[in-house]
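Much of the work behind modern protein science is quiet bookkeeping, done one molecule at a time. The protein below has been through that process, and both of its lines are reproduced in full.
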Amino acid sequence: MKLDFAQLLPSIPFILEGLKVTLMIVGAAGILGFLFGIVLSLFKISSVKPLVWFADAYTSVFRGTPLVLQLMIIFYGSPQLFGTQIEPYTAAILSFSLNSAAYISEIIRAGINAVDKGQKEAAMALGIPYSQTMKDIILPQAIKNILPALMNEFITLTKESAIVTVIGAMDVMRRSYMVGSDLYSFFEPLLLAGLIYYLMVMVLTLLGKLLEGRLKGND
């Protein structure tokens, strides 16, 4: 096997430009998925049955179907769903955030249930409103306990973001494929794409460990 990385050098800046798209999609989807995941987790522990049923059904659908299918339904089905063709980036952010919310809701629900119930009962005895109890007492402890699981979800989201290439979003993977087509040699540009994703994952892993260590230090 003959490899020629020299021919790839002029195309590296072009591939690296796709990093902005990847980070934009992952960042926006991660934030929206986290916020919606909190809402879903609160639905799941709610005493209002319709909210519980909705959250459970939502989680079942989005965890039970492939992410790439959800992405393609939102993108290619948008003319029928919304009456207009949405942008690839919008479709990616929407599908990734909706999918991530399903997984994050289960993580947060488990974290909430792991917090000592005595704290919730004590807050109720003191007359602290439910919303304030969740915001100031329960959720901060739950987030601290589930931080490694949340970081794993964000890492998974970062790697899975590569599937946006199927709808034409100009991310790292798409640009690497285009360079491979121009050079009639796919191995080198795809190997570079793999290295970029690997470095992103390593940075996220390091940030997660640093944040986890700081939180433990504040205990």
